[in-house]
Amino acid sequence: MARPLTARDFACPKILLAGTVDYAMYDRFRQQLEAAPATGLVVTELSTLGGDPEVARMIGEDIRFHSEDRPDRRLVFLGKAAIYSAGATLMSFFARENRYLTRGTRVMIHERKMETVLQVCGPLTSCIAPVKALLHELEHSIAIQNEGFENLIRGSDITMDEVLQRAPDNWYLEA
Predict the structure, then answer these.
(1) How far apart are CA 164 and CA 171, in angstroms?
(2) Fewest C-beta in 10 Å: which of 34, 48, 89, 117?
(3) What is the CATH number of the domain that holds 140?
(4) Tens of pLDDT along 21-55?
(5) Closest CA relative to residue 85, chosen from 117, 54, 61, 116
(6) Domain range enclosing 50
């Protein structure tokens, strides 16, 4: 188990991210990750009201890869002020012992959202494919969402049932 960190360890984060989780944030993350030391402590500080969950997963997979590829490099998450939505997804990719929040930080967990209109018209047999495609998209999105929830709560006292009960209504947790 990694040693607990102190406030001094967070004085100069090597990766600073704030704002919407999007492709621009991903580019900033990659640049800062490449410039970060190859060994030792590398703190990623994040403050976000959310954004694209797939971009959060991209950043998270980079974190996971680099954590496994360079065991002498400790990648640590520091959430500051607000870690909402896609920010919680990103946080879930850090090992539990490498997740920290500043005092008063709020974490917001919610279900993924979808907005779509399905128009069904034409011969009945041709109407099945778009309905099935949308159903498959929903099923796979739920599976990906739940994988993120499981990563987020792994090692904690929070159960998956509790997350699934609270997430539809935007669940806010305070550090």
Answers:
(1) 10
(2) 117
(3) 3.90.226.10
(4) 999 999 999 999 999 999 999 999 999 999 999 99
(5) 54
(6) 7-174
